[in-house]
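Consider a protein example.
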Amino acid sequence: MMITYESLRQNEEIRTLIARADDSLRVLGYTEHSFSHVCRVADTAGYILETLGYSEHDVELVRIAAYLHDIGNLVNRVEHSQSGAVMAFVLLSKLGMDMEDIATVTTAIGNHHEGTGVPVNAIAAALILGDKADVRRSRVRQDEGTMPDIHDRVNYSVTAS
């Protein structure tokens, strides 16, 4: 079976991980990281590489990386990019993805978070840009008067995106 962005979107195990990771962030009052977020990031990152003339294969890989990029929040918000990369490695290996592609996807996931991430290749760079470009007021889970971090302040300031 060919591993594609669309096939991963239909995979119930992966859907469970994304949903439970977002549930953990909801309890913490942290910015929304649901299917809406990961799909928007996938669309944006794919658009970036497509517009720049990258191959269909690279566009598919960045969409896969974007869809999986926040699963590490299931473990903990701290260092979620590294735990997410390890989780993606295991999942994609189990699904039979080519190791070269797994390496590219896990590198991008492991490097997507500000402070620790570095755009070490085009896939990682597009993922970082797609992730940071998803700015929407609807991502804020805090009351208007209790915005605890920069993510909520930025998201709450947006009235149209």
Summary: The chain is about 60% helix and 0% strand. The chain has one domain: 5-157. Helices lie at 5-9, 12-27, 35-51, 56-68, 80-94, 99-110, 122-133, 150-157. Residues 49 and 137 are 26 Å apart (CA to CA).
